[in-house]
Amino acid sequence: MKIAPAVKRAFAPPEVKRSTNEPPPRPSVSLGGTEVMFHTRFNGKLLDVSHSPAGLLAAALADGSVAFVDGSDGRVVAVAEVQEDPPNAMAFYSQWLLHCGDDSFVRMIESKTGKVVHAHSVTARAEAGKRPRCHAVDHVAVLDGMFVAAAGCLVHACCVPSGADSGADGGAETLCELEHVVCAASPVHAVCAAPASQAARWAYSIALKGAVRLL
User: Fold this and answer.
1) Confidence category of residue 2, pLDDT binned at 50, 70, 90
2) Does residue 57 belong to any structural domain of this protein?
3) CA 215, CA 198: separation in Å to the nearest integer?
4) Range of the domain at 191
């Protein structure tokens, strides 16, 4: 199959440079009837992407950074240097990105600035004289007014108060409040928010070995 030169340029690795005699790439390319609006190239391997209702894209790279991309033109509006490792899961809650890491933390990142404004640890209370056991946060789901994150057998439901602000007035300290904790008998494999039609009966579900629980 013959591949158009513009398509080759769009997916060429960063070290491949365009010839000075070659025309610049077109701003948009039509592929099989689907229009490609933009190409955003990163200096690193792209591992995950999350989309916000406001039209932003969060692109997680292998080096641990997260780029916030304008979904209308591909412009990078902010970059968050969070950790050395990429997140296990991401989801948008309003203007914040929920970033789930191996260190048991869910970090709330301001999408306009890339700044971490709050960090919540999904860990159980430590026994006397012992450190709390840490598990990677692998799953997150956004509900109405809260989010749910799972690490190992532990599930934390965190409330985000109405009107919470990440500005300089100290609002970041009240971004996240622990609502309830669920201790499962086995590791949680998935978390899912209830659809609108079922929200009055149950808020979210967790998938375990051989079972699904509605909470």
Assistant:
1) very low
2) no
3) 11
4) 90-214
What pLDDT, in 10s, does the model give residues 32-46?
767 777 778 888 898
Could you give the CA distance from residue 192 to residue 207 in angstroms, rounded to a whole number? Answer: 9
207 and 113 in one domain?
A: yes
Domain-located, residue 180: yes
Distance CA 124, CA 150 (A): 12
pLDDT in tens, 105-128: 999 999 999 999 999 999 987 777
Nearest to 55 by CA among 92, 23, 26: 92
Q: Are residues 27 and 108 in the same domain?
A: no
Q: Do 34 and 100 sit in the same domain of this protein? A: no
Tell me how many domains the chain contains. Answer: 2
Residue 187 included in any domain: yes
Determine the pLDDT at residue 133.
78
Considering the domain architecture, whether residues 191 and 105 belong to the same structural domain is answered as: yes
Sheet holding 76-81, edge to edge: 46-51, 56-61, 65-70, 76-81
Q: Out of 37-41, 79-83, 147-151, pick the least confident.
A: 37-41
Q: Can you tell me the distance from the alpha carbon of 180 to that of 148, in angstroms, rounded to the nearest whole number? A: 10
Please tell me the pTM assigned to this model. 0.79
- C-alpha dihedral over 62, 67, 68, 72, to 10 degrees? -90
Strand order in the sheet with 116-121: 89-93, 96-100, 105-110, 116-121
Domain assignment present for 207: yes
